[in-house]
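Backbones bend. Our protein:
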Amino acid sequence: MKFGRRLLFLFVSLGLLVMASANFYTNYLWYVSIGYQAIFLKTLLARTALFTAALVVATLFFVINLHMLRTTMRHRIMGTATGNIRYFPSEQPWMESFEAILSSKKITLLLWGIALTLGTIVALPASSGGLSSLMYLNSQPAGVVDPLYQVDVSFYLFRLPFLVSTVSAAFGLVLMTTLITVGLYVVTNNLSLNQGSSNQALKHTSLLVALLLLVRGVGYQLDAYRLVYSPRGVAFGASYTDVAASRPVFVFLVALSVVGAVVALVNLKLKRIKLLSVIPALILIVSMLAGNLYPMLVQQYVVEPNELEKETRFIQYNIDSTRRAFGLDSLKNSELPAPQPLSQQDVANNQSTLDNVRVLDWRPLQQTYNQLQSIRVYYRFHDVDIDRYVIDGKLEQVMLAARELSTQDLSGSGRTWINEHLRYTHGYGAVVSPVNQVGPRGEPLFYVQDIPPKTTTSVLSIERPEIYFGEFPGNYVVVNARSDEFSYPLGESNATTRYQGDDGITLGFLNKLMFSLRYGTTKLFLADDVLPDSKIMFYRNILERLQMIAPFLTYEPDPYLVINEGRLFWIVDAYTTSDHYPYSEPYGDSRVNYIRNSVKVVVDAYNGTVTYYLADEGDPVVRTLATTFPSLFQPLAAMPDGLRAHIRYPEQLLAIQANVLSTYHMTNPSTFYNKEDMWRIAQEQYAGADTTVLPYYMIMTPPGVGATDEEFVLVLPLTPAGTQQNPKHNMVAYLAARNDYPNYGELVLYRFPKDTVIQGPMQVESRISQDALISQQITLWSAAGSNVLRGNLLVIPLGNSLIYVEPLYIQSTSSSLPELKRVIVATLDNIVMAETFQQALAQLVGIAPPPSPTAPPIPGADPTLSQLSQALELAYQSAQGALQRGDWAEYGRQQQELSRLIQELQKLGNRP
């Protein structure tokens, strides 16, 4: 029975070892194949070195102390230390066993086994600090000092975290050893307050207590540095109480720990057990009373009665550090004049902006793409991206999406292993639409569409449309197999292809075996279609791919597609983050209090080639990473011009910065303390619910910064914070990020005059809902069985004016094909709804086509049938024109005229 269990245990252990080896081996092959094995090996080496160092130190420390413990207890039990007097009655059988164990020749091996086990327990957590140790060794100066200790911020970002974890591990090691040692000494009466103690036990314990106090003293010193992360005051970071009370306490505790360690060493001669008890107890009492009670009293009786006066300096530290940590210290402020009524001159001066106003909403557009352009059920559009291209010499904003393969959508019988891993291996092409135009039924127009891709301009031509790497979770696929891969549907048959790229790992016998073990399938190993020169491709989801290469970066969850020189690429924004920036307020529920978009990553959708570009050389975190991993980053200047022209400021980063700025635009400590001018990101209505406005891209000439040409700009409106009972929705400012070089990354905060109420998105939403003609039309559509979706509302600066644009989509309850039916455009004092944005804008500024003519009266007393027919046709066309323009008054007049003409026609029919 025991043999069977051992055999089972052996097989299970061997199986787990083989599986782990297969994963490690295949991962290493993957790193080699993409050229990033140096990062993998260096990180692995750092973790291994740290684990080994911790294991050796901890094991030796345990062995030395266990040996001392064994020697002392053996002498005590055998009576050699006290004149052959035994302290335990011989009738206690466990003592006889214990004495036998201590006297055994195998005790040394046992002690090493115990020490190795305990050392492993201590060392395992240490292995996770591999990157931290590398950052410590390669740290680069930030060029900024903290306001409390005047130490370069890099100390807090890279050195302090490693020192804290190292000292904590050392303290845990010494504390564990001390507790085990003292416990065993007490149990065996080697330490006793009443019956006398062994000299060896007292010396051993004194050494451990001295070491414990020294390590704790170092910890207290590090705790003093960590006051810059204190949440005690009105603002994050060391407050008045922390500086005036807690810091002196830590200094005292450091001194007390050193004195205690010296006393413990002196006790090697004195050999007094009570002295060893008093020292740690005294430090513990001082730590509790002075470390907690004293600061609490200072806070309550000194700070709170005069809080603003006491905290002003520290609030300023927090404001400056938080703005610097979130990239707001270089923010430009621009005061805008009060918006003026929209004029024809504003329209003429901002024609490029108006030509690129986005009337398509990406959410319903994604549904439309999946209905009109997926072509087959196994193709899907995961997301819709927004970008700009120079088309026919003009900067134009477009929306585009990749047509990716989703094997999960294959029919039930089609979901075979061959189909999922050998035949259906890649997506195909993309679709591109102008943001400001739709077809006659409200469907998007296409610059790129269909399979194979058809394009209307050479800039967007796609010569290599296959997408092997994308946003969908991708299965592993095998290319260059015996049979060809499916390429795209072609009439009654299918076009096929063979992969000609560089990615993939060849499947020789050993590799095929290891990958079969990795994926837990025999099909890969036994399939006749898998040849020796076939290649396996995995980690095809681009975010997963990047996470495997550089897990120390944080990636924007929304990669975007770029068409360049006939190929498809993905660009991913990568962030460096930290939660150790001194005095900087953590963001939201996270601990992150520092962020930079310092890295741009480009992934070839066909080859899977990954290139990391260094976008912000002023970031100390990315400079430290670049020093740690010299082969990882390339300078941004090395990025091809065609790709660099499509770099965007990340939406997620601007949203984070806007949220931080909602509080930290208040740079005066008094205003900050009283929270007199809190903001928030504007709200809007979407799909019938209130939601936060998302950052949106637009083409405009940013005012107040010396710009003369239109640029690609990311915008986010801001409103007062208000309260739940008294919400405020008027717009006070908008934050803009410039996207084009040489001004990429420049943030501008445009503030509206405080003495003028500027309508925010939610207030315009309310005006739209209350407009009689618009609400009546929406009601009619809804009554006819259609779902009406009001898209995202855009606030668009236009010279000294503002316009608000919201698309209106109609979707049948029996269909998932939304159509853009109307566009609502508003100014501060007017709202119109028309079939197109251009028609609505024309009505707003009074340059609309002349009012539709009313059918002229039929001359004479007896109009002929021909005359009535012509008049009816003219009235009908005039009514339709008014309807398309949203001119409801004119539409009503033409309906009345139609009724009159129909009556005339009836009279004519009744004549003999």
User: Anything to note?
Assistant: Residues 62 and 177 are 7 Å apart (CA to CA). Residues 37-78 form the longest helix (42 residues). Residues 865-910 form one domain. The chain has a mean pLDDT of 88.
